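Revision sheet: C-alpha coordinates.
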Amino acid sequence: MSTITLELPDNIAARLTTPEGMARAQAAVMAAFAHDADEIADTRTPREKAIDAVRETQKAHAQKKREDLVASVRGGNLS
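Predicted:
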Protein backbone atom coordinates (compact mmCIF):
# COMPACT_ATOMS: atom_id res chain seq x y z
CA MET A 1 0.00 0.00 0.00
CA SER A 2 1.16 3.54 -0.65
CA THR A 3 1.01 6.64 1.52
CA ILE A 4 -0.68 9.85 0.39
CA THR A 5 -0.65 13.31 1.93
CA LEU A 6 -3.81 15.41 2.06
CA GLU A 7 -4.35 18.98 3.12
CA LEU A 8 -7.47 19.13 5.26
CA PRO A 9 -9.29 21.80 7.24
CA ASP A 10 -8.58 21.62 10.99
CA ASN A 11 -12.10 20.43 11.84
CA ILE A 12 -11.72 17.43 9.52
CA ALA A 13 -8.17 16.69 10.60
CA ALA A 14 -9.30 16.63 14.24
CA ARG A 15 -11.60 13.71 13.42
CA LEU A 16 -8.61 11.70 12.21
CA THR A 17 -6.83 11.66 15.56
CA THR A 18 -8.44 8.38 16.62
CA PRO A 19 -7.81 4.96 15.06
CA GLU A 20 -11.51 4.78 14.18
CA GLY A 21 -11.39 8.18 12.47
CA MET A 22 -8.29 7.20 10.50
CA ALA A 23 -9.90 3.91 9.45
CA ARG A 24 -13.02 5.75 8.29
CA ALA A 25 -10.93 8.24 6.31
CA GLN A 26 -8.91 5.46 4.70
CA ALA A 27 -12.09 3.59 3.75
CA ALA A 28 -13.61 6.76 2.29
CA VAL A 29 -10.57 7.49 0.15
CA MET A 30 -10.38 3.91 -1.08
CA ALA A 31 -14.09 3.89 -1.92
CA ALA A 32 -13.78 7.19 -3.78
CA PHE A 33 -11.15 5.72 -6.07
CA ALA A 34 -12.49 2.16 -6.32
CA HIS A 35 -14.38 2.82 -9.54
CA ASP A 36 -11.32 4.41 -11.14
CA ALA A 37 -9.20 1.45 -10.09
CA ASP A 38 -11.66 -0.95 -11.71
CA GLU A 39 -11.49 1.04 -14.94
CA ILE A 40 -7.69 1.09 -14.86
CA ALA A 41 -7.54 -2.65 -14.16
CA ASP A 42 -9.85 -3.39 -17.11
CA THR A 43 -7.46 -4.29 -19.91
CA ARG A 44 -10.10 -5.15 -22.50
CA THR A 45 -10.02 -3.28 -25.79
CA PRO A 46 -12.97 -1.03 -26.69
CA ARG A 47 -14.10 -3.72 -29.14
CA GLU A 48 -14.02 -6.39 -26.43
CA LYS A 49 -15.95 -4.11 -24.08
CA ALA A 50 -18.59 -3.53 -26.77
CA ILE A 51 -18.90 -7.27 -27.45
CA ASP A 52 -19.28 -7.95 -23.72
CA ALA A 53 -21.95 -5.24 -23.45
CA VAL A 54 -23.91 -6.81 -26.32
CA ARG A 55 -23.65 -10.23 -24.69
CA GLU A 56 -24.90 -8.86 -21.38
CA THR A 57 -27.85 -7.22 -23.15
CA GLN A 58 -28.66 -10.47 -24.95
CA LYS A 59 -28.53 -12.37 -21.64
CA ALA A 60 -30.87 -9.85 -20.03
CA HIS A 61 -33.35 -10.12 -22.91
CA ALA A 62 -33.23 -13.93 -22.82
CA GLN A 63 -33.82 -13.89 -19.05
CA LYS A 64 -36.77 -11.54 -19.49
CA LYS A 65 -38.26 -13.86 -22.15
CA ARG A 66 -37.89 -16.85 -19.82
CA GLU A 67 -39.55 -14.95 -16.97
CA ASP A 68 -42.40 -13.85 -19.25
CA LEU A 69 -42.91 -17.43 -20.47
CA VAL A 70 -42.97 -18.79 -16.91
CA ALA A 71 -45.43 -16.07 -15.89
CA SER A 72 -47.71 -16.82 -18.84
CA VAL A 73 -47.65 -20.57 -18.11
CA ARG A 74 -48.41 -19.99 -14.45
CA GLY A 75 -51.17 -17.58 -15.38
CA GLY A 76 -52.63 -19.94 -18.02
CA ASN A 77 -52.08 -17.40 -20.81
CA LEU A 78 -50.50 -19.67 -23.41
CA SER A 79 -51.24 -18.27 -26.85
